[in-house]
Amino acid sequence: MPRGFQRPVGVQPARSGKIGGKSRSLIAAAVVLGLVLAWKAVSAAVGKEIILPSPERVLAEAAVIFPSPRFLSALWATFLRGIAAFGISAVLGTAAGLTAGARPVLGAALAPIMTVIRATPVLALVLIALLWFPSGFVPIFSAFLMAFPVMATSAAEGARAADARLLEMSSLFRVPGREVFLRLRLPAAAPHLIAGSKNALGLTWKVVVAGEILSQPTRALGTGMQESRVLLESAGVFAWTIAAIALCGLTEWLLGLAADKAASSGL
Question: For residues 186 and 178, what is the distance between their CA atoms, to the nearest angstrom?
Answer without folding.
Answer: 10
